[in-house]
Amino acid sequence: MALLIRDLLALTRYQIAESITLTSDTPDALPVHLPESGIRQALLNLILNAADALDHGSGSGLICIKVRIVVQGLRIDVADNGPGFFS
Residue 75: how many CB atoms within 10 A of its CB? Predict the structure, then answer.
């Protein structure tokens, strides 16, 4: 999983503005078996959506993926420091 996320961030780096920082906080070894293509597509969509929102704001920002093992299984957070939703 950590390798999948590192590879995804490297691929995504070329699709978003250079002023947006991409980081990840993932354990090196995660004993989980997930459908890789589905997880990859979901994470890619979340990262690109966050980058798009940041582009419409200041044009710079931070996107971070955090992965944690929890009692229920695996928790994956994709967070950015953009302005949030507007009404």
Answer: 11
Q: Name the residue among 20, 7, 26, 30 with its Cα closest to residue 77.
A: 26
Q: Which residue has the tokens 């798009």?
A: 52
CA distance 43 to 48: 9
The per-residue pLDDT for range 36-79, each reduced to its tens digit, is 788 889 999 999 998 988 877 666 899 999 998 888 888 999 99
What's the gap between Cα 57 and its chain centre? 18
Q: How far apart are CA 68 and CA 27, in angstroms?
A: 7
What is the Cα–Cα distance from 50 to 81, expressed in whole angstroms? 9
